[in-house]
Write a structure and sequence with these properties.
Layout (H helix, E strand, L loop, with lengths): L18 E3 L10 E6 L9 H14 L8 E5 L3 H13 L2 E7 L4 H9 L3 E5 L11 H11 L3 E2 L8 H17 L6 E5 L4 H13 L4 E7 L4 H7 L29 E5 L1 H15 L5 H16 L5 E6 L13 H6 L9
Parallel strand pairs: 2-10, 3-4, 3-6, 4-5, 7-8, 7-10, 8-9
Antiparallel strand pairs: 1-2
Helix pairs in contact: 1-2, 1-5, 5-6, 8-9
The structure holds 4'-deoxy-4'-aminopyridoxal-5'-phosphate.
4'-deoxy-4'-aminopyridoxal-5'-phosphate binds next to helix 6.
């Protein structure tokens, strides 16, 4: 029962996350900033939503058989969401992750009994063993294996069109001027953006990615630049993937690793909200917008995962220092 928050299954507790207003970090800024806290999903990220939807779609049309194997490539959060759904429904799970994925996510995946295949994050995208190439190749070689393929499967975007978007519209009672969200697969920003624009075409939708990713230049010029490495987990890509739906987007903005990580730490210190680096990236863009927009403008953003996933990386002063980011005492 949704109203009492009492459910027959943990899977029914996915979604309907709170939206909270940011009051302190925004002090003195004319626009209102609201954030949807997706790290309050059961396995701790926005990706619980797509894990459930993609698996249930595959069950319904026979792509996934009882006791079957699921294989996916993930920056960690989709893998964790899939682990939750797989455990509840009795499937086996194998995931391909970069060796740069945070130790917290890897430890959790192991504890959940997930079979992990690492890829060298420094391999060029064209390499047969690169992150983007390895999972489809492994999936082709395993009979009866379901490959959700979150980077190309538009059921990913559909999840957000059917759930996250309508929740935001209802929670904000339709009073939204901007929606700003990170772009990894693009499922969140494009799926929510499409829904919100259907309700009100005046809403501006802004995607955020790390410097070094390829979406912003592709959006502006139609060309794919040479990708560069970055540390932020969960955002950006080296290819223009199938879920990258640019139609609902008004702009794609880049943020550096340093600005993203330091803004996430500011969010923790100034609001007590402990979120991941991708939340810091979107918030950096939102705070700049909130400074420039007229009083009362409502900006809605979304925090995909928790900072507890990054206690040994972006919330660790020594790690920040080793990676060249200046951490002032208390920042
Ligand atoms: N932030 C984090 C931490 C993520 O794991 C992801 C998913 N890759 C995103 C943001 C982006 O979400 P999407 O794939 O829907 O664009």
């Amino acid at each position: 029962m949704r109203g009492l928050h009492r459910y027959d299954s943990i899977l029914d507790a996915i979604g309907w996350t709170p939206i909270v207003r940011l009051n302190r970090i925004t002090a003195g800024l004319p626009a209102e900033v609201w954030a949807k806290l997706e790290f309050l999903n059961p396995m701790g990220s926005v990706k619980d939503r797509i894990a459930r939807h993609m698996i249930e779609k595959a069950e319904a049309d026979g792509r996934l058989q009882p006791d079957g194997l699921i294989l996916e490539a993930s920056s960690g959060n989709t893998a964790l969401g899939l682990a939750l759904v797989a455990i509840q429904k009795g499937y086996k799970l194998k995931v391909v992750v970069r060796d740069s994925t945070s130790p917290e996510k890897i430890a959790l995946l192991r504890a959940l009994g997930v079979d992990i295949e690492f890829v060298d994050a420094s391999l060029p995208p064209e390499h047969p063993d690169s992150y983007n190439n390895k999972a489809p190749r492994l999936a082709r070689g395993l009979s009866g294996c379901f490959f959700p393929d979150q980077h190309n499967n538009r059921e990913n975007n559909e999840t957000h069109y059917l759930t996250t978007g309508p929740e935001i519209w209802e929670q904000m009672e339709g009073r939204i001027d901007y929606f700003v969200a990170g772009m990894g697969t693009g499922g969140t920003v494009a799926g929510v953006g499409r829904y919100l624009k259907e309700r009100n075409p005046h809403i501006k939708v802004i995607a955020v990615e790390p410097e070094g990713s390829v979406f912003a230049e592709y959006f502006r010029t139609g060309r794919r630049p040479q990708p560069k490495r970055y540390l932020m987990e969960g955002l950006g890509d080296e290819f223009i993937i199938g879920t990258a739906d640019f139609e609902p987007l008004d702009d794609v903005v880049q943020v550096s690793d340093g600005e993203a990580f330091l803004t996430a730490r500011r969010l923790a210190r100034e609001e007590g909200i402990v979120a991941g680096g991708s939340s810091g990236a979107v918030l950096a863009v939102v705070l700049k917008l909130a400074r420039e927009l007229p009083p009362g403008t409502r900006i809605v953003t979304l925090f995909p995962d928790s900072g507890f996933r990054y206690a040994s990386t972006i919330y660790n002063d020594q790690w920040m220092h080793e990676h060249g980011f200046t951490v002032e005492p208390g920042s």
